[in-house]
Amino acid sequence: MITFEGVTKRYPDGTVALDDVSLECPTGRITVFVGTSGGGKTTALRTINRMVEPTAGRVLIDGGDVRERKPAELRRGIGYVIQHAGLFPHRTIEDNIATVPYLLRWNKKKARAAAHELMERVGLDPSMARRYPFQLSGGQQQRVGVARALAADPPIMLMDEPFSAVDPVVRAELQDEFLRLQAELHKTIVFVTHDIDEAIKLGDRVAVFQTGGKLVQVDAPEDLLAHPADDFVAGFIGQNRGIRTLGFAETGGLRLSGDAVFAASADAADAAGLDWVLVVDADRRPLGWARPADETGPLAEARLAPVGATFRAGADSVRVALDAAVLSPAGLAVGVDEAGAVVGTAGGADLLAVPTHGPAHHRADRAADRPAGAPEPADAPAKGGAGD
Ligand SMILES: Nc1ncnc2c1ncn2[C@@H]1O[C@H](COP(=O)(O)OP(=O)(O)OP(=O)(O)O)[C@@H](O)[C@H]1O
């Protein structure tokens, strides 16, 4: 646990970068500092590894004041990743990653072996080990930056806008891999960004800073979206707050119906009275949507509209499911299990009935729980003998 106790930083020119900030960053979790430019996020981050000394207050790691530790020794247990990766241009990728192991006087072979293993972990092909940073894309360089920070397996990682310098697609990939990595590693991470969407996606807790170094709110992202502390936070979060809250509502408790799911071997007459039916194959994989009123004979021969987007029942959020419902010709979201077999469907009203303000879940737990599988379908999932 990293604890800020009444931390103030006033620079000699009178600028107050942090104003009496108290906050806890729990062990094994991602705490994101977000806020307006000049809000003191970077300053706050740097008080943790003593790159900045507070004017008042203290920063504690597991109860011990960081000022009681020598900066060099302190920093060996704290990985640091910055924007543009900050790689040494004249060193190869493997030697960049092995920077701290070399400082710790590991032998070269062991340090490089660790570097290669880390390259795989962060999604880099180890064949790039002998390249120089300029021979890598921006996204690849950021991965090297993350690998370098992880090299000595520090329990704490400080990350200052690590994904800000790459395009949105690469950025989303880096974020996803970062969450996957964290689900394995459970580091105590403090992550600075000016992007509220990134904060909400990555943070187990999100701390919002306002100009003048004031900490305005610290909460789980779903609570931040649902209950912004004041107009500043509400304005900072921006639009579509309601829809974005659905990104935290889970589909695990959703009752999916099998009423509109029919095997390809079933006859259109069996589905009489239904507007649209989802036709599935013998493995209950979705084939497409049919209109029974327009068809005669087996649904296998029906004209099918594309299935479109599906959601993983119990794994994807209500927001993903709602998106699938809106895009479906039938207005129904198709829930599938991990094998891609249809569990059932849900309409927009069913999806909106899912509670969104349940107990806050921590992202790391959720990622670890994810393969838990699909829920029991409420009804017999496929009529007409699918899978028989
Ligand atoms: N060495 C310094 N001397 C004087 N003022 C400083 C110094 N470093 C930072 N500041 C000021 O402290 C305030 C907080 O800066 P900080 O970099 O922590 O903000 P930030 O929230 O990280 O901003 P950004 O998102 O723009 O990076 C700013 O007003 C900045 O100009």
TrEMBL record:
Residues 2-237 form the ABC transporter domain. Residues 370-388 have a biased composition (Low complexity). Keywords: ATP-binding, Nucleotide-binding, Transport. The keyword Cytoplasm does not apply. The keyword Protease does not apply. InterPro entries: AAA+_ATPase, ABC_transporter-like_ATP-bd, ABC_transporter-like_CS, P-loop_NTPase. Gene3D superfamilies: P-loop containing nucleotide triphosphate hydrolases (3.40.50.300). One of its GO terms (molecular function) is ATP hydrolysis activity. Its EC number is 7.6.2.9. SMART domains: AAA. Coiled coil: none annotated. Residues 355-388 are annotated as: Disordered. Belongs to the ABC transporter superfamily. This is ABC-type quaternary amine transporter. It comes from Actinomadura physcomitrii.
